[in-house]
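Hi Q.,

Before the meeting this afternoon, I wanted you to have the inosinic acid prediction in hand. No need to reply - just skim if you have a minute. The sequence and ligand are here:
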Amino acid sequence: MLRWRRAGDCFRPVGGRGSRRLQDFFIDQKIPQTLRAAWPILATAHHIVWVAGLRPDERFVPGPTTRHTLRVTFYQHQAAQQLASQAGREGTMHNDIERILLHQDEITQRIVELGTQIARDYSAEDDLLLVGVLKGCMMFMVNLAIAIDLPLAMDFIAISSYGQSTESSGVVRLIKDLDTDITGRHVLIVEDIIDSGLTLDYLRSQLLRRNPASLRICALLNKPERRQADVQVDFIGFDIPNEFVVGYGLDYAERYRNLPYIGVLKPDVYTRTT
Ligand code: IMP
Ligand code: MG
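Predicted structure with the ligand bound:
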């Protein structure tokens, strides 16, 4: 099976001197703390077979009496490589990330699925209008629109939510309205994340007053635990735990939107005084 590390993991790395604690092995190999918890490990019920990309256990190396071998390839995510190479270097965005929640290729793959689903649910005659909620929707909107194989138009709306804090104030303010008259149009709101639901609840009621033919919601991320307003989200990319996340359009104090993955910041980032 493929699994993450477990407390007390030991193995016998090939070329080493007997049994070693996995923890110590990671340190020897200079694997940054941030990557250790999610490092793929191939194991049987009782033994580690291979610490992916690093070293197999000597008991599982093919020898003269081996009858069958299994070839397993490990492709390290580009984002993980970035994290590893930047770890410890001051002033890089990656160095502020404690943990990656979603890698770029998982995100883009899921967006293609969402786009396919949306293209099935609407028809060309619907003349779909995507309404992106700035600025968090940016990366998502681009990739989603490309994944929807239907004629469509795009417009944007901007509303303020958190300011510099990571908690929703519940106070929502319209900063930029749509350019399009949505009366009689099939509208799909494209949002980065739904957290308390207050922002989308407000936006939904505002747009419904303009009498669109239909109004649905597509959010890349959903934090179900945090919901305060009862909004129906029609298309969801990923449910995530109740943690503040950045990257792929999502910001903290306007930074980190250009990270290619979605991750959790190190706690000390919030207490910096710059
Ligand atoms: P809600 O009103 O609580 O649902 O918050 C919605 C808005 O808050 C989203 O459109 C985001 O801009 C922002 N937001 C909520 N959670 C996060 C997060 O974890 N990271 C970054 N922005 C977030
Ligand atoms: Mg937003």
